[in-house]
Design brief:
Elements (H helix, E strand, L loop, with lengths): L1 E2 L5 E2 L3 E9 L4 E9 L10 H6 L3 E5 L2 E6 L2 E9 L2 E4 L1 E3 L13 H7 L5 H9 L15 H6 L21 E6 L12 E7 L5 E6 L5 H16 L5 E4 L5 H8 L7 H11 L1 E3 L2
Parallel strand pairs: 10-13
Antiparallel strand pairs: 1-2, 3-4, 3-9, 5-6, 6-7, 7-8, 10-11, 11-12, 13-14
């Protein structure tokens, strides 16, 4: 706390060193400066300057501060105080704590290892530090641990283009498209990953689009579509019965197995 002349007190929130540049270009360094937000005046006590080795001369409404033969600053009398023309040098560090600990350099250098710090210290790049001994930081240990590698799994693809085709249906879209297509269905070769996309206005158009796709690719490749894998359940039985040809089967026995695997197999 700082006690004023009227016996009031103000809170001091900080103490440091301030460097001023006076009107004649000389630097005036003030030590142990109190930062009092409630005080709107920047006050310098002549007795403190006298303790720091400065010589104060008052007379003729003038104030002169000297140190040896050097004139540091001039001031003029204003009311009951003397006013000094100066400003704070913001491009210099007014207060600095010299912390050269290894923990600080460890954080500054992106959590460098102890070996790396010792290497820099041996090259005299860390000021007076010589030998590093870091604490065991949990976040550093966790960040530098190696993740267990996944087991290598080679993706298997079919050897022919129509041996397996993947298909899926997406929709309905929340936003109405310009063409009115709220759904789209995809067909992908498992062999080459070639993709076909068909836009649908309604979900029941899947069967017609599939027939169109099947006829197109079989005519283009000269091969028969063997298997279709999908997650769609729409028109599943109708699609199956239209693609298996005239083969006779018991749909009651086949459907549970078909729904579990979601694979449409042409016989």
């Amino acid at each position: 706390m700082l006690k004023m002349g009227n016996n009031d007190t103000s809170k001091v929130i900080g103490i440091g060193t301030v460097c001023l540049k006076t009107s004649n270009g000389t630097k005036l360094i003030l030590k142990n400066v109190r930062h009092v937000p409630d005080n709107h005046l920047h006050l310098i006590f002549a007795s403190v300057l006298d303790d720091d080795g400065y010589f104060n001369t008052f007379g003729g409404a003038q104030w002169k501060i000297t140190k040896g033969s050097l004139v540091v600053a001039h001031g003029t009398k204003f009311s009951s105080l003397y006013r000094l023309k100066s400003y704070i040098l913001f491009n210099v560090v007014n207060v600095a704590d010299c912390d050269n600990s290894y923990d600080l350099w460890h954080k500054r250098l992106s959590h460098i290892s102890e070996k790396g710090l010792n290497c820099l210290a041996e090259k005299n790049l860390l000021l007076v530090l010589k030998r590093a001994k870091l604490k065991n930081y949990a976040h550093c240990l966790a960040g530098k641990q190696h993740r267990v590698s996944f087991k290598s799994h080679h993706s298997s693809r079919k050897s022919e283009v129509l041996e397996l085709v993947h298909s899926d249906l997406c929709g309905p879209m929340k936003t109405k498209p310009f063409g009115g297509g709220f759904y789209f269905v995809t067909f992908i070769y498992d062999h080459s990953r070639k993709l076909w996309v068909y836009v649908l206005k309604t979900k029941d158009q899947v069967l017609g689009v599939f027939k169109q796709f099947q006829a197109s690719v079989e005519r283009e490749t000269g091969k028969k579509l063997k298997c279709v894998r999908t997650v769609m359940v729409v028109n599943l039985v109708d699609l199956l019965m239209n693609t298996v040809g005239s083969r006779v089967f018991d749909i009651r026995k086949l459907l549970p197995r078909l729904l579990s695997s979601m694979v449409w197999q042409k016989g």
